[in-house]
Amino acid sequence: MTQLAPALLLTKLRPPTVREQWVARQRLLNRLRPEPGVRLTALIAPAGSGKTTLLGTWREIEAVRRPVAWVSLDEGDTDPVVLWSHAFESLRRACPALEVSCEPENLDAGRIVETFLPNLANALTEQDGVALVLDDFHRLSGASRDSVAWLVEHAPPSLQLVISTRTEPALPLSALRAHGELCEVRADELGFTEGEAAVFLNDRLDLGLRPEQIDGLVSRSEGWPAGLYLAALSLRGVEDRKVFVDSFDGYSRGVVDFLVEEVLEAHDPAMQTLMLRCSILDRLCGPICDALLEQDGSARQLRELARTNLFLLPLDDNGHWYRFHRLFATLLRAELEHREPGLAPALQRRVDSWQRDQRPNAGSGGSRASSGGGELSERERRILRALTGSLSERDIARELYVSHNTVHTHTRSIYRKLGVSSRAEAVQQARERGLL
Hints:
The protein has 4 domains: 10-188, P-loop containing nucleotide triphosphate hydrolases (Rossmann fold); 194-248, no CATH class; 267-366, Arc Repressor Mutant, subunit A; 378-432, Arc Repressor Mutant, subunit A. The chain is 50% helix and 8% strand. The protein has 21 helices and 7 strands. The strands form 2 sheets. It has a 5-stranded parallel beta sheet with strand order 2-3-4-1-5.
């Protein structure tokens, strides 16, 4: 029986329209510029981080000087034939002279990597330069994902492959990073700085917020773009904006709806249970979650969750301690009370009992009442070293090529881990512990 070619959905090949209200963040657009030797450019961040909008803006600018092909991925692209039929059509529209001897719609899935992709890679060598954007890469799995991995490894220098994803992609990132072949932009960079938030909220949306109100929203949302946008929608009908800013959290209706539908319910029931019940903790690790859930295997679940839900943030480089994004944690606690009313106190008693059974400091980082503990990440160590001088947080951000919000968030984390409340105390405590 003759295999029917997959029908092309041309709307998948159309980049998003960039709204007038959006802020063109030059520091991020600069990061996406093609660099010699880079095989893969990856935007890796949670839902609502502005990945697609940033890529749409970048594509408009970049398309002036070279062809840029775009594919918005969906569940149908788990079939490699469907994926590459759309990708090749987009590439051909961007590069009309691009030709291959065998097109993907005429092949079965098994021959995509064997036949089509080598032909495509050879054809791309004839191009002066082209970019292929695969938006929502987290929707791919199995053979389709493996086919992209093949192209990452074998693509010619003329191709810049760009992906956006809500989860850690199953691609050889470590090897690419080690060889200088990876450009990665993650959630901490995508977060709005105070300056960018001021342009968005006041210049674009004309909300007339005071600097301290903007700083409060950035701090409470941790710079999360969707959180700021949802706050902006709510602010339009608010008279007392100070009260709103002071109380803005995961209980806000728009935030609740977005995080429940787009983040929490994307996981299976067992993982949802872990997130909901462990939300009573400020910091999570495998043993304390095992005690709280009365089960084994939480460390493995946390590692998987950190890969698939980027609202769970690692606090060290060893994959031992984690925390939830502030707004997400607030949402989880509210949802826990909604789904299992009155359970939180019993869960806290399990945590308290576990801590009493440990050495004095072994588990202190897990309870909301705790004030320290946990290893510093490499970025936190760099910021800690910068704190020994006289530079302001903004100056440190410029020195380290990160956002002010990133420095501010990590500084607060350093204080928490060292059990201090000021810069001077942090430096003194770090020296006493041999961290400097």
